[in-house]
Specification:
Layout (H helix, E strand, L loop, with lengths): L1 E5 L3 H13 L3 E6 L3 H11 L6 E2 L2 H7 L4 E4 L6 H10 L3 E4 L7 H14 L3 E3 L7 H11 L8 E7 L9 H4 L3 H6 L1 H11 L5 E7 L11 E7 L5 E7 L12 E6 L2 E6 L2 E6 L7 E5 L8 H15 L7 H20 L3 E2 L5
Parallel strand pairs: 1-2, 1-4, 2-3, 4-5, 5-6, 7-10
Antiparallel strand pairs: 7-11, 8-9, 8-15, 9-10, 11-12, 12-13, 13-14
Amino acid sequence: MKAILVGLGGRGRHWVRVCRDFGTVELVAFVEPAAAIKKVAVTELGIAENSIYASLSDAIKGHKADFVIDVTPPAVHETVALAAFENGLHVLGEKPISSSVTAARRMIEASKRAGRRHMITQNYRFGTVPRTTRRLINDGVVGKPGQLDVTFYMPWADMAGSHYVTEPYMFLNDMCIHHFDMMRYILGADPATVQCITWNQPWGWHKGDACHVAHFGFTDGLHATHTGLGCSVGKTTSWNGNWRLEGPKGSLSWEADKIIVVQGHRTEKKINGEQPLDQLPYVGEKAILAEFLKAVKEDRDPECSGEDNLKSLTMALAAIKSTQEKREVRLAELG
């Protein structure tokens, strides 16, 4: 299939490499209005300069394509998606789907009207650890989950001047949305409430808060917490974070991206050991690309469709609303 890639910054150049390595996607055109970034892409990736356009409309006029890969900032996603859908193109967009629920809903409705597929790149859920964990939970290895605790410590986005550092709540909205999305995927459930507090450490480099504790409540009595420190200068977790899931049969934990299952109390057969990870044909961005292309071919909604991913965005935005208003927020309040 043929694609137009919008945005040739660092993440956009990464997607160029993913598509080239994947093999069945032909990047026919690119969009990048910034001359300096355009120059880097030409030099670093050997992209033909005349294939890089200043606007998506110009790229669409000059090339026949099947879909758009949107690697622009969240505030631009709606503009890119609407232009693509109006021209009959599917969209594979970087997370988060948008910077607002209202804009996300407009994008979702536009994709439905156009009959085009819209997928968001929540690549963390496509890793071997969350995929294996979901299977183990469905197999009942710990019984019905009752509590999930996630901790995440990382020197995140130590990039002076970038929007990750200068804009508010980027740690929650851009990074931790990965973990919130994995919560939804692994548990097969969506939270009803969130209470969150955020702050900064005196040695941190973010202007927006990069530390938090969030509690998510589910209608069936499940509780989940997420503790994050985005300016860690000590021992880090993995990018997935450390997870501990408790049920009536035992616990399942992620430790350095290993899955440990323990059944140690009120059981005759005690278990305490690492679980083998499922073998997957693709992980990360390649898995996303494979799912997206398959969904387009089969004319169905992909996993992480825009409509589904709005639920993950709502978790992040509701957590931000909670810390701003210093109260528990029902996710339904965001509409």
